[in-house]
Design a protein that fits this description.
5-stranded antiparallel sheet; 8 strands; 5 helices
């Protein structure tokens, strides 16, 4: 029996020693991250750009009305906005591309020095944001809305519904620029590029910020079509990478 206990104790010691040795090896064995850190590396970034003509536009149109009472201001506004929305649909704008983006009712006061403010009526404002997918009709759509009662024209922004092809072209340009830069730096330092260690991408197509078209200025009926030029949009992709260099 004593011999059996002694054998078991020896076995436990052997297992404990093996585990300790394995742990020590794991702590001392170099990892891939350690190797990359000890290597001579070069961190660079570059970008690629392409341009693409927009195929859609977003614009805000509104109606502002004033009346002695709040209910009158809202009713007058609703009647006019109904006419504006009807004209947009008649001009070919899909109902899914018409969205109410603002609805406000505010009291209007007259301020006289040394006297309390005097209520002078109410102002109601209703704004819709529309998406025009046929840019050739953008000017006529704006004209139709103004001629049907719109009093405000807000910001306009152009967009791209599918930018995948342009983004891929920008990616290719970005990688070419990154490789050229890496080779240039390596040669200047007396090294050669051995391998790519890390790579990341950022950027891509971002919608154009709205451009002031007629920022909530009172509009009048138009006799001729409003000219609108879409131009081109920039599609940019930024890339970053770490390269390992060798002599």
């Amino acid at each position: 029996m004593k011999t059996l206990f002694r054998a078991a104790a020896v076995g436990a010691l052997i297992l404990a020693g093996t585990a300790a040795a394995t742990g020590a090896m794991a702590q001392t064995a170099p990892t891939a991250a350690d190797s990359a850190f000890r290597a001579t590396t070069l961190n660079l970034s570059a970008y690629g750009e392409t341009r693409q003509a927009p195929d859609m536009a977003t614009i805000t149109l509104g109606v502002t009305t004033e009346a002695p009472s709040a209910s009158e201001a809202m009713k007058l506004n609703a009647d006019r906005m109904t006419g504006v929305i009807a004209s947009l649909k008649k001009a070919g704008i899909d109902p899914r591309d018409i969205q109410t983006s603002g609805l406000n009712l505010n009291p209007q006061y007259v301020y006289v020095e040394n006297q309390p403010p005097r209520l002078n009526g109410y102002q109601a404002a209703n704004t819709v944001t529309i998406v025009v997918r046929d840019l050739k009709r953008l000017g006529s759509v704006v004209d139709a809305s103004v001629n049907s009662g719109a009093t405000n024209v807000g910001g306009i922004s152009f967009g791209i519904e599918d930018s995948q092809v342009s983004e891929d072209k920008a990616r290719v340009e970005a990688v070419k620029a990154l490789q050229a830069k890496a080779n240039l730096y390596a040669q200047s330092l007396g090294y050669k590029v051995a391998r790519l260690v890390t790579f990341s991408e950022s950027g891509g197509y971002a919608p154009q910020p709205p451009v002031v078209y007629a920022s909530f200025a009172r509009a009048e009926k138009m006799d001729s079509s409003t000219p609108v030029e879409a131009g081109q949009l920039k599609v940019r992709v930024d890339v970053s990478a770490t390269f390992e260099l060798v002599k």
